[in-house]
Each structure stands twice: as C-alpha cells, then as structure tokens.
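Input/output pair, single chain:
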Amino acid sequence: MNATQTAIALWTLVIKEIKRFTRIWPQTLLPPSITMAMYFIIFGNLIGSRIGEMDGYSYMDFIVPGLIMMSVITNSYSNVASSFFSNKFQRSVEEMMVSPMPNWVILAGFILGGMARGLGVGIIVTVVSLFFTRIEVAHPLLTVGVVVLTAALFATGGFINALLGKKFDDISIVPTFVLTPLTYLGGVFYSISLLPAFWQGASMLNPILYMVNVFRYGFLGVSDIPVGWALAAILGFIVALFAVALWMLENGKGIRS
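Output:
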C-alpha cells in the first residue's frame, strides 16, 4: 500500500470506530457524565464543604482534574477492549489481518478510536463540572498534551487486554480489579502529601498518579511529583505498550488458535 492508501485505510478504521460508539451514545457517552455529576455533588459539594481546602484550593477545584482524567482513562480503555474483542469474537479482525493494511494501521486505528471516545467523554465531564465550579487552566498546552497522551496510553492497554481475552468476561477483569483500584489510589481525591512516608513511596509505583498530577498541574499549577518525571514516565509507558501490542498483533497472539 502506498501512503495515500494507508492514510485512507487508517481514516476509514477511525471513522468506523467513532461511529460505533456515537451510534449507541446513551450507553457510551451519557452514563459517564451522570456518574461524574454524582461525584461532583457528593464529593465536591457535600463532603468537600466539610473538608475545606486541599493544597491551597477548594476541594471541588482540587478533584475536578482527577475526575476528568478518570473518565478519560476508563473510557479510552474500555472502548478499545470491547471493540477489538468484538471484532476478534466475530472473526472480522481476520479480514483486516489478511488485507494489505499494515498491522500498525490496525493498531493505530483502534487506538485513535478509543482516544476519540475518551477525549469526548472528558469534554462532556468538563462541561458538567462548570455547573459546580469555575475552571481556570494555568497551563493549557500541558493540559491538552497530557490528556491526549493518557488517552493513547490506556487505549493501547485496552487493545492488549482484548488480544489476551478469550471470553467477554476477560475484558472486564483488568478494569475491575486493576484499573479501578489504581485510579482511586492515584491521587484523584487526595494529595499524597497527606499519606505517611511509606505509603507516599508506594503511591509512586502507581502510573495513574503521574497522569493525574500532571493534569492537575496543568489546571491548578500544583503537583505532588515533578512534572518532568511524570511526562517521561507517561511517554515511556506509551512506547512500551505500543511495542508490545504491535508485536502481539504481528505474531497473531490471541488471534490465531
């Protein structure tokens, strides 16, 4: 395939993925916005009014970046995991594998589709947050950059999950038992400076902590960890997961029996 054909194939796959989740928007876009609205009401208004300030900001302002990032993470991941596994289950992925389309285009197409849903939900949650607080972005370029990188990272993770899954239940194991605990322990609702020294060190092993803190720094200008280290860690995770996903796809791992 030449460059033009490759671009057309990639664009077609991305559009197909976007149409897939927008066609069923009451299941893919509406529930996250309702869930986050509940978080804003319960944690931000009811509990936050009793907590007071966190790192010099109202508790509502403090948790808004974390909740936006949480919605981006879960939706980027789940979109690719469910979409690619459905293609694998229906064996339609085999048609893509035998086509002239390069494997990296298949991988990139699903990742970009997952990113589109994650970022779309992130925008919706941001709009919802405006009903509860006033958002001021201290570093706009950094904020946009880190949310795009995070969406790419977890979309890639969802692709690997779909490759490894053998039944539909398998694609819910990682989000339930790994992703959700790491997200809640990733500094979404608190600053790790409140933790004892041991648990602060343990928290540094949580990759989601880096993403939440960089995103919060983009909004508020405060972070529990050095922003440069966090960005380097995110980029490292993306490169590593993309390489693993592409290797698995090229070798038919999870596809060929």
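The first strand starts at residue 53 and ends at 54. The CA atoms of residues 101 and 169 lie 30 Å apart.
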